[in-house]
Amino acid sequence: MLRHELQPGKLVAGTVLVVAGVLYAGDAGGAWDIPWFVAIPLVTGGLCLAGAVALLTGVVRRRRRDGGTGADMG
Questions:
Q1: How do residues 16-61 score in pLDDT, each as one tens digit?
Q2: What is the 3-state secondary structure (H, E, C) of the chain?
Q3: pTM to 2 decimals?
Q4: What is the distance between the alpha carbons of residues 71 and 61, in angstroms, rounded to a whole number?
Q5: Would you say the C-alpha torsion 47, 49, 52, 58 has a positive or negative sign?
């Protein structure tokens, strides 16, 4: 039995933020050189993707819970 339900939107957001953190940790450690402006599109794009995934997950779960097949949707 699961303790909680999977939330793919949070998984995507966490993954993107971990990637951003690893990139800047590598930059701080001298492994590579990352421009400062990389973080803005990476984080905002990742959060937008996470929001879209969360929205899609909500729609799918709502359809499954209501037992809808999608045929009655206009």
A1: 999 999 999 999 999 989 998 998 999 999 999 999 999 999 999 8
A2: CCCCCCCHHHHHHHHHHHHHHHHHHHHHHCCCCCCHHHHHHHHHHHHHHHHHHHHHHHHHHHHHHHCCCCCCCC
A3: 0.78
A4: 16
A5: negative
